[in-house]
Design goal:
This protein is an all-alpha fold and 119 residues long. It is built from 5 helices and no strands. It has 2 domains: 2-53; 59-118, no CATH class. The protein has helices spanning 2-35, 43-53, 59-73, 79-91, 98-118.
Length: 119
C-alpha cells in the first residue's frame, strides 16, 4: 500500500510541475505582449495585422502610384483644344493633310513591327 501512495504522490507532483511550468510560460508570453502594449487575448491577430501594415513599397511602385494619382486628377479631354478644332471644322478652315496621315500610319506600323521582332 505504501508503494501505491508513493506513486500517486509522485504523479500528482509531476502534474503539478507541468501545470506550473505551463502557467509560467503563459504568464511570460502575456507579459511580453503586454510590454508591446497588446492585449494577450488578441495578441497573435494584432501582431499579424501590424506586420501586414508594415509593407514597404519600392521607389518604382511609389512613383507609379504618384503618376496614377496625377493622371486621375487631369481631365481626359482637353476642352480648349476640342473647342479650337471644332471651330476650325465648323468654319471649314481645318485642312487634313492626307500625306502626313499616311506617313504617320506607316511609321507607326514599322515601329510596332520592329518592336515585336525584338521580343
Amino acid at each position: 500500500m505504501k508503494v501505491d501512495s508513493k506513486v500517486n504522490n509522485s504523479a500528482a507532483q509531476i502534474q503539478g510541475l507541468n501545470t506550473s511550468k505551463a502557467n509560467e510560460a503563459k504568464k511570460g508570453k502575456e507579459s511580453a505582449l503586454a510590454g508591446l502594449g497588446e492585449n494577450p487575448a488578441a495578441g497573435n491577430a494584432k501582431a499579424l495585422k501590424q506586420e501586414a501594415a508594415r509593407i514597404q513599397l519600392s521607389e518604382k511602385v511609389q512613383d507609379m502610384k504618384k503618376a496614377k494619382e496625377l493622371a486621375s486628377q487631369t481631365p481626359d479631354v482637353d476642352a480648349e483644344k476640342v473647342k479650337k478644332f471644332q471651330a476650325l471644322i465648323d468654319s471649314g478652315n481645318y485642312k487634313v493633310d492626307s500625306k502626313k496621315i499616311a506617313d504617320k500610319l506607316v511609321d507607326d506600323h514599322l515601329m510596332t513591327a520592329a518592336m515585336t521582332e525584338e521580343k
